[in-house]
Amino acid sequence: MNNLTFKFMRNAFLIIGVCLSAILFSCKKDKNTEQSSSETGKSETADSTLIADRGWPREAENNGTKLVYYQPQVDDWKDFKEITARVAFSLTPKDGKQVLGVASLKAETLVDKDNRSAFIKNLQVTDVRFPALEEKKVPEMEKLFKETLPQSGDPISVDRILADLSHTKSPPKGIAAKNDPPAIFYSTNPSILLIVQGEPVLVPVEKTDIQYVVNTNWDLFFDKTTKDYYLLVENIWLTSKNVAGKWTKTTKLPSGLRHLPSGQNFDDVKKMIPPPSSGEAPEVFYSNKPAELIAINGSPKFVKIPGTKLLYIDNTENDVFADENKGQYYVLLSGRWFKSKELTGPWSYASNSLPADFAKIPKDSPRANVLSSIPGTQEANDAVMLSQVPTTAILKKSDAEAKVKVSYDGGTPQFKPIDGTKMQYASNTQEKIIKVGDLYYLCFQAVWFMSTSPNGPWKTCDSVPQEIYTIPPSSPVYNVTYVTQTTTDTTVESSATAGYLGAFIIGATFGAILSYGTGWYYPPYMYYGGLYPIYRPWPYAYGGGAVYNPWTGGYAAGRRVYGPYGAAGTSAWYNPATGRYGRSASVQGWYGGRTAASTYNPWTGNYARTNQGHNAYAQWGHSAATNGNQWAQTGHITTRRGTAIGYETSGGNKGVITHRRGGGTTIHTNNNLYAGHDGHVYKRDANGNWSHYNNGNGGWTQAGTLGSSKKAGEGIQNRANKGVGANGAGERIQRDNQGLGANGAGERIQRDNQGLGANGAGERMQRDNQNLGGETRMGDGIQRDNFPKADQTLGQPNKPLGDAGRPDVTHDLDRSAISRDRGEMQTRNFQNIQRSGGGFNGGGFGGGGFRGGGFRGRR
Fold this sequence. Notes:
By secondary structure, the protein is an alpha+beta fold. 14% of the residues lie in helices and 29% in strands. The protein has 13 helices and 53 strands. The strands form 15 sheets. Strands 2, 3, 4, 5, 6, 7 and 8 form a seven-stranded antiparallel beta sheet that branches.
């Protein structure tokens, strides 16, 4: 395991600054707004490339004192904002001797989920222990440690933290979601799903007899002269007298379509006029409410999943499985499982009753992406936990208040009651405005404001009424309950979790899972008081092909059968200031939405430049804890010793993080020091045995299998460390690192990692993780037994050290080692995805560039 972490540390990548987030559907906004978004987003992308977890251990220097500190072992992350952890370290005073120690830390965190990084601020050292130091020297070394340890700005990967917490965090309670199946169509022929919410909402095309339908997911037009509908499906034109009727291919179009105005999102349509003669007409399935389509490319082709009684259908974009034991079909839609005896239905909810074989799907299976939606699996636990981690923005109150804009369709605010409460919500605006008593509260792009009038002026809230957090999932404004904030005299710090962007936790018999949407259907708002009808839809759970992407922590969407606009109601929006509807062709990939224009988030109502994705904070010109370039000014240099990231926080704190190449002269280059709950410093050898540091000369004592301690004699530990001095760099380490280049890829590491794909799941790792994989996670399992609590960390400074090597301590250390490796793999995989641009293929609704299994891109 040492070699794995050794290699992983040296394989850390620079993150390419592509600020993307979850839940994404797209459409275009007006030119002037798009330009404004463009200008506000420029500085963030360039700066964020360096603000990331660059691996462990890390090195800091202060007045000649050198501190090497290892990856923290996280005991708790209260409300995902206050972290408690242990850290092992080595401290070398100027012209002094190196000492090893263990510290307990407590700090606040700011999270940038776009980069999956948690930034540390207000760090407190609650305890420092030096297990092999003369008592009279402890105060001096403790002082040097506190002076040298960076106090803030130092980023750690969220994946590393969550890997530690996965053993201790209890699963949250799911929401009261509505899990009734939508209408589910089935076809083995080329087909599409045409959704028109309610009756078609028709808007005239200037100087023609043509109208276009805005409340649909396809390019749909109506000829007022002939009373015919015309539907463009990629490069095929279809026509029908009724949107719910039979559609036939046509090459004859009304003259009005040839006069569509330039711009206004008709450019792609104009490329198909006159109609191409080639191509076959697809089958059209129609629904006036959110629905789903299982589209098979010909007869189903079933593929057996090894080690299970499950098969999956390979020739479809859907996740469809068959269980040979029960004779049932299963389909995953928006994070929810439905089952049926026939592929044609009827379907019923099944997330609570999945066969145990689903948890046995191999991690390198082409269908391994569904593990995130299988209750009890590590992947599902990760998704649920990540959804609770807030993204944070720190804004000046005056700046935020100056940017708030609210408009009501028809001019006069209209409010509707929120069921089960005394509150009301504004129904004729895209903004989320809640009336509580005589006051009005606005959640505007993840920041709360208040006013005594529904028209403003709006001031940032110093406190949000608790009553707002009782809004039920049946309300279309439920997602605002996932936004909280605190304020100072001049700033507001806002935190938003995945629920604000439409990803919600639902309960299941064996564990919680993350789903898209609440399952409730919120009918759209329509107003016909002016020249143009006003149509404002609410987002909904089905009809967009939403599938969870573990690397963004949310849902991507957009299969071909759902049209160029993702889903009816998520891309069509109305701007009363211009009288225009916004519609833009979009390509939804696994790493977020990529559009030719701006993006629109149906849950938040906000816009963002394409390179910012669909972040909740796009309005403010930055996305999270980094606060543009105000939180951490970063730079990097490369020296003969390696790469160093230097940072200076806005509060004036400075530090340096150094990463060395090709080993080094100390033991501190392989991230293999751990802080025990008993206050001792531990390291693990290649065979999984633990040793604790026991004297100031760099000596180590091996922990016995029953918890007793004994001196390392002529056995494997002594041979492994033969010739080890104070720095612990013995012959074996030198042999292991022989021939290591910048990536630290030596022969032995190559052997240890033989067969590792992008998931890094090699034989050895599988042995280490035995009984912690998906096979055993359907029940309570091993995760909860005898784990020390956070308040047991190190005790009081004047309390003697505990006996080293006790079974409960080494058992905890085993888990820490597994978590450290898993966190390293998750971090590396995410950075690889980000570095490669998310595997976006640029030409369709596919993507999925995660190679080697573990996450399947759409075909």
